[in-house]
Amino acid sequence: MFSPEGPTLRELAVQALSSVEHGYDLLAPKFDHTPYRTPDRVLDAVASALGSMGPFGTGLDLCCGTGAGVDVLSRVCRESVTGVDFSAGMLAVARERAVPEGPAVSWVRADARALPFGPAFDLVVSFGAFGHFLPRELPGLFGQVRSVLRPGGCFAFPVVAPPRPGSRGYWTLLGFDAAMRLRNALWRPPFVMYYRRFRLGDVGRELARAGFRTDLRALPEFGYRPDGSPRARLVVARRLS
C-alpha cells in the first residue's frame, strides 16, 4: 500500500495515537506517498465533470491537505483559488508545491467548522475529508460551506459506491471502523476517521436542510456496477438564495 518514500509502520502508529491535527502534521512530509492522498484518477474525473459545468470565478478547496484538490480548481477557476486546512504541516507541504499556471493560489489555516470567509466563492470542493467529521457535525459543516458560497455557488465532492455487504471491501471498512472505535475508547485525544458514517442518503438530507439543491452526476471513468448504478458519483450541491 505504501511506497518506499512513505511512512513506516512506527510513524503510522505514532500518528494514529495523536490528535487529528497533530497526526496530520506528523504525516504531512510523506502524505503524498500514501494511499490516503486522493488518486490522480479521481482528481482528473472531477476536473472533467466540473469543466463541463464551468468555468467558475473563485474556488475553495475545503480540507485541502497538501493541495491536490487545488490543482483541480486551478483547471476550472479563472480568478483565484484558495486551499484551507487546519494542519500547519499539511499546508507547509502545500506551499512548497509547484503552482500551476492559471489563477492566483493562496493557503489559509483554519477549521472547516469555522471558516474565516464571507460569501466569496463560486465553487467549493473537498476530497476524502468527510470521515473526519461526526454525523452530528455535518449540519454545521454544510452551513459553513453555504456561508462562503455566493448565491448559486456550487459545492462539489466525489463519493464512491459503498462495498456490498459481505464483500472484502465491506469487511475491511468494518474492521477499520471497529479499530478506530477501540482506539478512541482507550486513548485520548480521539482520532476521528469513520468513513462508513458518511452515507449518501444522510448527506443529501443535511445538504437540503442547509439550503442546497443537490444533483448526482455519474463519473463514467469508474464504470458501473452489475445493477447498472455508477461506481462513483459527483455530488453537486448548489446554494439556493
TrEMBL record:
Residue ranges of domain Methyltransferase in the record: 60-153
GO biological process: methylation
Tagged with keyword Transferase: yes
Molecular-function annotations in GO: methyltransferase activity
Pfam family membership, one: Methyltransf_25
Keywords, comma-separated and alphabetical: Methyltransferase, Transferase
Key word Zinc present: no
CDD domains in UniProt: AdoMet_MTases (cd02440)
Name of this protein: SAM-dependent methyltransferase
Organism per entry: Streptomyces mutabilis
